[in-house]
Specification:
Shape: globular
Oligomer: single chain
Strand content: 25-35%
CATH topology of the largest domain: Spore Coat Polysaccharide Biosynthesis Protein SpsA, Chain A
Order of helices and strands: EHEHEHEEHEEEEEEHHH
Helix content: 40-55%
Number of strands: 11
Distance between the termini: 63 Å
Structural class: alpha/beta
Length: 255
Amino acid sequence: MVQISAVIITFNEEINIERCLASLQGIADEIVVVDSVSTDRTKEICLRFGTRFVERSFTSYNEQKNFAALQAKYHYVLSLDADEALSSELQQSILGVKKDWDADGYYMNRLTNYCGKWIRHAWYPDAKLRLWDIRKGKWDDNIVHEKVVLHQSSAVRYLKGDLHHYSYYSLDGHFAQQKKFASMSAVALYSQGKRSSLCNIIVNPALNFIKLYFLKQGFRDGYEGYLIAKISSFTVFMKYVYLMDIQRRNKEGKA
């Protein structure tokens, strides 16, 4: 049987972290928490669960997660966000994998709870590779919406059961986070040599809304599905507006 290290990055996650840690009991052989110097009860809660608690100033999500993976005692790593938790079916799937590890990495579907409602269409299934052999891959270089990338020809499997994601508790929280992500995404796009245009600003948000609300059937999620599609499309709008602003400011600086 293989042994698994669960790794989590945190910052002021007292509202979420206990649920996350509780779902790992009996599943993970160790739990490592890399914390960005929280000022709430995050450390107290983590220590109560017997985690190995490491404090490190935040740089970026991908760097923090790669650092956390390197702190693991075992080669087989399960990476969760503090606002995520294993469903009972996913727990059983992971226990099965521990007895018969037959891939380099494992995907799991993420089911999101948005303002108290489970979103089963607009954001589902949201497959995430979160269980893998760290000798075979790591988090990519994206500063936002980072993902685990395995070496070429690596074998992957899909696990049964959902990774529960408790995303936003209020509209204010959703708007604040999306503004942050839009700004970070614009900086990342500019550094990659990508540029914005009026076409991007007008067309891309509309396409994003169509994808989430119609193609992904977000309308079946009711009012919350409409909000998700609308706010997500506005985030795309902000991303390309921010990118346009960066372009203009840099052009003026060179003039």
